[in-house]
Amino acid sequence: MPLIDQPSMKHHYLLLLFCSILLLSCNKDEIEATVPAYLKIDDISVNITNPNQGSASDNITDAWVFVNDQLIGAFELPTVVPILQTGNVNIKVRGGIFNNGLSNQREIYPFYEFFTLDTNLIPEVVYEPNVVVEYKADAIFDEGWAGEDFESGINLIENPNGDTGIVRITDQNKVFEGLASGAIFLPPGKSFAEVYTPSFGDIPRNGTAVYLELDYKSTHDFAISIYANNRSQQFSVVNFRASSDWNKGYVEFSNVFSTLFNAANYNIAFGLLKSKNDNAELYIDNMKLINY
């Protein structure tokens, strides 16, 4: 084993002496870690305050947590959030979504209000509030298009170039909620179906938030697109993956309408394309167009 020469030994002793003095100079509060309180959130639900807001269904995936108006972070649900600030605090929680169904586009949904809690946080205590959010009071529902929940009929139009249209189903084993849902059936021998909304033009085109919400279940991927100018132009918006269970989608149209700001009118289209040998089923419910 090599020997340590005396100058090196001296430097080691000096370093140890310096560290000892530094530790002795720190007070107890500086050495001990702050003990947090904890916020446990299993789920965030939606409360409907006006019938024209439609269904309370949601797909809130994340909790965006603020303490005294400072963002602590975005946390995938369910979650337990450590909070270092203790004592009297103001906690705000906003619901986060997968924008356009994409897990790499996690955003605060702009139409859900804050959940607010004023409380006294005690270190090591776990707080479990029932987090419920509401739609913002100035959110406008179905201004351009009346939406569709299939409860009393269908206001979607079949593309004449497709093989079939959409039907209203009332089988409670297949309906999402309420009395009815919409369904597109493509049996073997048929490969394409598309339905679209009536034309509308009364929608913000300046980049402010515009979203379509819908509940869906599908054996195959399906596409949502926008027609413009009396269906003379079509622009793809998003493709949703097949889902064997009912799912909720939030589709952002803000950029689409701002890009097509000078269009005379628009239609939102829902398309299903598959091999002729397959059997495809697409179920849709609770479509609503929301903006400010």
Q: Biggest β-sheet, characterized?
A: 6 strands, antiparallel
> pLDDT average, as an integer?
91
Envelope shape:
elongated
Counting structural domains, the number is: 2
Terminal CA distance: 77 Å
Q: Structural class per helix/strand content?
A: mainly beta
Can you tell me the residue ranges where pLDDT is under 50 for at least 5 consecutive residues?
1-24
* Top CATH class of the largest domain: Mainly Beta
**Percent range for helical residues?**
10-25%
Helical run tally = 3
Verbal overview:
- With 292 residues, this protein is mainly β.
- It folds into two domains: 98 residues, Immunoglobulin-like (Sandwich), CATH 2.60.40; 151 residues, Jelly Rolls (Sandwich), CATH 2.60.120.
- Helices cover 10% and strands 43% of the residues.
- The chain contains three helices and 21 strands.
- Strands 11, 13, 14, 16, 19 and 21 form a six-stranded antiparallel β-sheet that branches. Strands 3, 4, 6, 7 and 8 form a five-stranded antiparallel β-sheet that branches.
- The chain is elongated and about 70 Å long.
- The N terminus is likely disordered.
Distinctive features:
6-stranded antiparallel beta sheet, 3 helices, 5-stranded antiparallel beta sheet, 292 residues, 2 domains, 21 strands, elongated, mainly beta, Immunoglobulin-like, Jelly Rolls
